[in-house]
Backbone:
C-alpha cells in the first residue's frame, strides 16, 4: 500500500513555512514518518533553514527538491510559496543521490546520483524510475539525461526538471536532505512492482519553414541558414504582424519559441536574449546541424497537451489507480499564459480523478520513458503518476 500527502503553504518565513508543511504531513500520516519527501520552494526562502526545519520536524527517510518558479497542487497555486509531496509505502523503495560539478563532468554527476540506487543489477523490483532535478543555470541537462541513461544501462525511466528562480536566471539550486547545492543534480529512485506512468505533451506546432542551424555554441544560437539567428526572428515577426523589441525580446520569444526536429516531433527551446552579433541565447543547448522551426501555440493547445500528458501517464500505470502525480511545466508557459495557466492544472486534475497532484514551474523539463518523446525540454507538460 502507498500513502501520499500533498501540502502547500503561503507562509513566507522559512521556519514558519517548515512548521506549516511538516504539521500538515504529520496530520495526514497520523504522525508516521515519511519514507520520502519532495520539496519545491520559491527563491525568496532561506532554503537551508527551510530544509533543516523540515528534516528535524518530519524525519523523512530521504528528501530531494529544488528551488522553483511557481508552485502548485491540485487545490492551490501561486508564486513565492512552497509545497511538499510526502510518501509512505510498503510496495515502493526509495533512495536519493546527489552529484556535484555538473558544468565540468556530467558523467561523474550521473555516476554520483545513481551510486545510491538499489535497483541497478537488482531484479527484485520490476519497475525503476528516478525523479531527476538539476541546477538549470549549470546547463548541460540534455547531456546529463544521456549520461544517466548510460549509468543505469537503460533500465530506468526519468522524469523531473530544472530548478527555477522565477525566471530571474541568477541562482537555481537542488536540495538533498538538509543541503542546498548549485552546479549539481539530485535523483530520487523509486522502485516498484507496479508501473509508474510518465506522459509528455507540449501543443506547439511549426509556424513556417524549417531552417538549418549552421552555427551554435551550446545554448547560443549563432546562425540559421547561414545568417545571424536574429534575422530569422525579425522576418517571422514582420511576416506575422508581431513586434520584436531587440532590447526587450522576452514578450515576443514567449510566443515564438524554437522547435528542434527529432524525427519523432519537436523538442522545444526558449530563446531568452539577443546579442550584439545577432546571435540568440536560449534556455538550453541547440545542436549544430539540426533543423529547427519557429513554433506557435494557444492557451487551449497548452491545456490539451497537459491533458494528453496526463492521460498517457495514467495509461502507463497498467490499469492501476493513480495515487498521486507530479506535474512539471515551464516558467515560460506560466509567464505566457498568466492566470490562464490554471487551465493546464485543471486539465491535469481532470485526468487524475481523485488522485492528488503536486508540482512546480521549472526552468526546463526532463522526461525519458518508453514510448515518450525523451530528453530535456522547454515549454512542455510532463506528468508522472504513481500507482496506489
Residues:
Amino acid at each position: 500500500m502507498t500513502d501520499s500527502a500533498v501540502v502547500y503553504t503561503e507562509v513566507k518565513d522559512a521556519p514558519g513555512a517548515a512548521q506549516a508543511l511538516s504539521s500538515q504531513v504529520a496530520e495526514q500520516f497520523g504522525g508516521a514518518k515519511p519514507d520520502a519527501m519532495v520539496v519545491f520552494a520559491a527563491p525568496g526562502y532561506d532554503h537551508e533553514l527551510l530544509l533543516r526545519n523540515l528534516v528535524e520536524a518530519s524525519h523523512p527517510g530521504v528528501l530531494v527538491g529544488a528551488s522553483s518558479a511557481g508552485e502548485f497542487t491540485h487545490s492551490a497555486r501561486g508564486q513565492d510559496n512552497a509545497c511538499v509531496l510526502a510518501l509512505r509505502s510498503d510496495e515502493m523503495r526509495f533512495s536519493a543521490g546527489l552529484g556535484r560539478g555538473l558544468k565540468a563532468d556530467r558523467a561523474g554527476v550521473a555516476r554520483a546520483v545513481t551510486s545510491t540506487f538499489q535497483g541497478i543489477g537488482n531484479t527484485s523490483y520490476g519497475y525503476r524510475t528516478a525523479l531527476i532535478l538539476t541546477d538549470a543555470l549549470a546547463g548541460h541537462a540534455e547531456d546529463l539525461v544521456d549520461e544517466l541513461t548510460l549509468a543505469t544501462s537503460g533500465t530506468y525511466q526519468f522524469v523531473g526538471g530544472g530548478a527555477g528562480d522565477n525566471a530571474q536566471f541568477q541562482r537555481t539550486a537542488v536540495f538533498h536532505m538538509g543541503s542546498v547545492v548549485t552546479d549539481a543534480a539530485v535523483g530520487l529512485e523509486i522502485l516498484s512492482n507496479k508501473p509508474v506512468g510518465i506522459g509528455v505533451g507540449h501543443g506547439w506546432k511549426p509556424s513556417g519553414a524549417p531552417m538549418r542551424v549552421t552555427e551554435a555554441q551550446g545554448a547560443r544560437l549563432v546562425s540559421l541558414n547561414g545568417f545571424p539567428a536574429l534575422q530569422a526572428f525579425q522576418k517571422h515577426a514582420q511576416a506575422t504582424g508581431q513586434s520584436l523589441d531587440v532590447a526587450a525580446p522576452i514578450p515576443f520569444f514567449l510566443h515564438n519559441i524554437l522547435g528542434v526536429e527529432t524525427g519523432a516531433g519537436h523538442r522545444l527551446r526558449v530563446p531568452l536574449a539577443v546579442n550584439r552579433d545577432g546571435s540568440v541565447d536560449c534556455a538550453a543547448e541547440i545542436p549544430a546541424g539540426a533543423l529547427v522551426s519557429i513554433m506557435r501555440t494557444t492557451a487551449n493547445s497548452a491545456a490539451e497537451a497537459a491533458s494528453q500528458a496526463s492521460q498517457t501517464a495514467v495509461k502507463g500505470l497498467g490499469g492501476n489507480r493513480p495515487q498521486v502525480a507530479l506535474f512539471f511545466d515551464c516558467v515560460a508557459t506560466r509567464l505566457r499564459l498568466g492566470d490562464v495557466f490554471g487551465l493546464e492544472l485543471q486539465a491535469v486534475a481532470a485526468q487524475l480523478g481523485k488522485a492528488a497532484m503536486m508540482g512546480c514551474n521549472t526552468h526546463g523539463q526532463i522526461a525519458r520513458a518508453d514510448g515518450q518523446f525523451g530528453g530535456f525540454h522547454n515549454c512542455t507538460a510532463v506528468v508522472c503518476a504513481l500507482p496506489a
Q: What stands out?
A: The chain has a mean pLDDT of 94. The radius of gyration is 20 Å. The longest helix spans residues 299-315.
